[in-house]
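> @MW can you paste both from yesterday?
MW: sure, first one:
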Amino acid sequence: LQYHSDFSAEKAEVFDITADMTRQYKGMQEELMRKISSLEATINTQRDELELSRLAHEETKKAKDQVIALKDAEIAEQKQKMEEMAIEFGEMLKETLDKMGERIEVTSNTWENETGAPIMN
């Protein structure tokens, strides 16, 4: 009879301990699931932010490339204008040189006709 009551007491104590351990296990499992859920939400948020950052980076890169292309086109246009101006200036200098040569020749001829002496020997 004593053994029977000791056995029943031991059985009740083991049951209480098992119930307590099961409750602790379930609590820890629920806490772990909450943490997993929270971390998954954080991962999803950061993935979204990363994707937005990538898109913003791509847009910035495209805008930069467009600006560079426009500036390159502008530089090419300015180089072409400078080339045209250099050619025009060269033609103007040649015309001026030709006119000065003509005037020197006319002056020389006039001098020779008036004085009979050549300007240069």
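MW: second:
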Amino acid sequence: IPMTKTACESQSHWRSFALSSRDGIRFDRSGEAKYLTLKELNGVNSGAPYVWFVEGMARTVTNDLPKLKTLAGDTIEDMELEPTFYQIDWRNQYRADCVGCPVRVHKWPSNEEGHVDNPQVDLTGIENN
């Protein structure tokens, strides 16, 4: 059976969370990780909404900049827009593939570590681009 390409097709299966455990470093993988970047949907200094990209592929849109947090949930800072990028790191993450689950990231170039809440998929405003 060929893989369906749209959510409306019969027998399609689409996840509700934007970041997947297949996106980051894992013990049983090569050590390669994908990168998360954030851009404003309507251009520079336009404000919300913000598009989340993994390796250049849009994953979701949020109205607020995500917060980089400690594992305890304390805010470290707002995440930054591109050219800053975040390496996704799933090591030691056991509950990861769900909306709201913490996803470990490393900010580059500073290598500051924190977590971001895994957002729900929402492609409003970019679905036809």
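> thanks! The chain has no helices and eight strands.
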